[in-house]
Amino acid sequence: MHDLWLPGGVRTEIRLTGEDTAGAFTLLVDEAPPGWELPPHRHLVESETIHVTGGTMWLALGGEDERMEVPAGSTVHLPPGLLHAGGTAGDEPLERVVIFSPAGIEEFFAAIGQESQDAQIDGPELLRLAGEYGWEFS
């Protein structure tokens, strides 16, 4: 699949879809710019496993304000339903390999992804699609 640009300037490549894995998981590779962050949210259906390959990620779990750092070479697993927030820590881009299981979330990313970094989906449409694909924002 080709590169998609997600809100916040995140370049994402969906490497394996549910079609490739018989519905078991989706695998993507992404790069987020310095300053990127995703507000507290949860995935109602999918678990999320994140392996940081470059830069450092911050992660806050369960609605807590305390942030932990996840440096390159580290892996974290987030079960379905866990409230979490995250973003780029430091001045370097964040590079990750992310697995969502079961598959299906790639349809959400395809729905909100844009062909260029400058084209962005509007907020109300993003929130509508997020709800449709089992994301809850707090």
From TrEMBL:
It holds the Pfam family Cupin_2. Residues 32-100 form the Cupin type-2 domain. SUPFAM superfamilies: RmlC-like cupins (SSF51182). This is Cupin type-2 domain-containing protein.
